[in-house]
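Subject line: Sequence and fold of a protein, written as structure tokens
Area: Proteins and the way their chains fold up in space.
Start of record: The labelled sequence and token lines come straight after this line.
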Amino acid sequence: MDGGWFVAGAFALWFAVALIAQLRVPAVSVRRRFDVLGLVPSWNLFAPRPIITDYLVWYRLWSDGAPGDWVRVPIPRPRRWTDAVLNTSRRSRKALWTAAHTISWSSGDVRVPVLDPSYLLVLGVVSRHAERAGTASGEIQYRVDCVRAALADDSERLRWFLSERHALGGTDA
């Protein structure tokens, strides 16, 4: 038997499982939790509650008590054509979006605790980004902007959350 038929059969089986996984029935939902490798995609083509909000994460460095310019944190990496088959940064992009969402919606009238997991995740991302950019000292502060689908102009972005200042290198100032 030719090895090509085996590969074609494996892809056909994966595609059939992926199509069945799109059904929103309890039996399929229960089996989805066994997909620990994330090999079965979730295609929400017609979401009952579509996402109309995006979050932009920015940071700035402080040196000698003076703030620097805001720098936007890019998504973990630009998309490549191979992401259609295997998207390795999908979870890190989703984790950053979810953390920014959690911070934004929990910061209404109260301060988000510095030990909140979402706060710490975003702080870690912006700190690593600043260190990769060549900054190893000083203080860092980040903000989360909320952009709604109806707001297309940059001037209409909502500054949703502003963090405290933290020392780069892991110790708070």
Q: What stands out?
A: The two ends are 66 Å apart (CA to CA). The mean pLDDT is 77. Residues 3-21 form the longest helix (19 residues). DSSP finds four helices and six strands in the chain.
